[in-house]
Amino acid sequence: MSSFRHAHNVAFEKSDLFFVCLLRPLSKQVMVDDLEIHAAKWMPLVEFVEQPLIQGDDMFKKIIDIFIARLGKRYCGLSVHQLVSKFDDKLSTLYFNNTVDDPDLNCQTS
């Protein structure tokens, strides 16, 4: 599952590309790069959702709604599709939501 947002003149008057992906960790160890990140940790979803920053932001609240729907297998997110484009006759990857009647619909979380 993925979502993204693009905005101009955000923090530090720069453009901002914000991507959200649901991934599975290879381990639960968090390796913090002290030059870029002050603190990082795993936390229960409830603890994350209850943070004031999340509660006060409509975008984050919508992202949480999508994650919870995904965990409940009520939302499949974007699916990967391999297609050939006539622009270059090469195989490309296109990500899009499947429709309910799509035979490729697969909402497995494991």
Topology of this protein?
Layout: E1 2-7, E2 16-21, H1 45-49, H2 52-55, H3 58-71, E3 78-84, E4 91-97
Antiparallel strand pairs: 1-2, 3-4
InterPro entries: NUDIX_hydrolase-like_dom_sf, Nudix_hydrolase6-like
GO molecular function, one term: ADP-ribose diphosphatase activity
SS-derived structural category: alpha+beta
Give me the count of strands: 4
Give the biggest beta sheet: 2 strands, antiparallel
Helical residues, percent: 10-25%
Number of helices: 3
> Major sheet: order of its strands?
1-2
Order of helices and strands: EEHHHEE
Q: Uncertain regions: pLDDT < 50 for 5+ in a row?
A: none
Averaged pLDDT, please? 77
| Backbone shape | extended
Strand portion: 15-25%
Could you tell me the radius of gyration in angstroms?
18 Å
- End-to-end Cα distance, whole Å, is 13 Å
Description:
This protein has helices spanning 45-49, 52-55, 58-71; strands at residues 2-7, 16-21, 78-84, 91-97. The protein has three helices and four strands; from the N terminus they run ββαααββ. The protein has 110 residues and is α+β, with helices and mostly antiparallel strands. InterPro entries: NUDIX_hydrolase-like_dom_sf, Nudix_hydrolase6-like.
List keywords for this structure.
extended, alpha+beta, two-stranded antiparallel ribbon, two-stranded antiparallel sheet, 4 strands, 21% helix, 110 residues
